[in-house]
Design a protein that fits this description.
With about 160 residues, this protein is mainly alpha-helical. It is about 65% helix and about 0% strand. It starts with 10 loop residues before the first helix and ends in a 5-residue tail after the last helix.
Length: about 160
C-alpha cells in the first residue's frame, strides 16, 4: 500500500478554505444564539470545544479559522445596532430583518458585518462566500435574495470597489 499523497493546496487556498468554514460556522452560531437565546461567548466556546478540530478527528469536527470565526460572531454582536439598520434600509419596502427566515437573517448579519467592518476581504469575495453559504442551506430563491441584498450592501459599504 502506498503512502497517502500530500495535499497540493497552497497556503492561500488553505486560508480561504478555513475562512469559508469559519463563515459557515458563524452563520450557524448566530442562528443557534437567536433560536436558543444563548450568548455569544457561550456559543463560541461550544464551537471551539465541540465542533472545531484538527483534520482527521472525525466527521463531527470541522477544521476552520477559529480566530476569524470568533471575530465574526463577536463582531456581529458588538456591531448589530449598526449592521441591522443598514441591512434593513437595503431591503424592499415592507421588509424588515424580523420578517426574514432566521438563517437568512444570520447570513445577512455576518456578511453585513464583514462588508462594513472587515475591509481586509474584497466585497466580491464576501458576497460570493455568503451566497455559497445560502446555497448550502436553501434550494429556492433565498440565495438570489441574499446575493441581491449583499450587492446593495456592498455598494453602500464600499462604493470604491464598484
Amino acid at each position: 500500500m502506498s503512502a497517502p499523497q500530500k495535499s497540493k493546496e497552497t497556503p492561500s487556498e488553505a486560508r480561504a478554505r478555513l475562512r469559508r468554514a469559519a463563515r459557515l460556522a458563524a452563520v450557524q452560531a448566530l442562528y443557534q444564539m437567536e433560536i436558543g437565546g444563548r450568548g455569544a461567548s457561550t456559543v463560541i466556546r461550544e464551537f471551539r470545544d465541540h465542533r472545531f478540530g484538527a483534520a482527521g478527528e472525525g466527521e463531527e469536527f470541522v477544521e476552520a479559522d477559529e480566530d476569524f470565526f470568533d471575530s465574526l460572531v463577536s463582531g456581529v454582536v458588538e456591531r448589530q445596532a449598526v449592521v441591522d439598520p443598514a441591512i434593513d434600509g437595503l431591503l424592499a419596502d415592507g421588509w424588515r430583518m424580523e420578517r426574514l427566515d432566521a438563517t437568512v437573517r444570520a447570513i445577512l448579519r455576518v456578511a453585513g458585518y464583514e462588508l462594513f467592518q472587515r475591509k481586509d476581504v474584497p466585497a466580491r469575495v464576501v458576497i460570493d462566500e455568503y451566497v455559497d453559504v445560502a446555497n448550502a442551506f436553501f434550494e429556492g430563491s433565498e440565495p438570489k435574495f441574499v446575493n441581491a441584498a449583499l450587492d446593495r450592501c456592498a455598494r453602500q459599504a464600499r462604493p470604491d470597489e464598484f
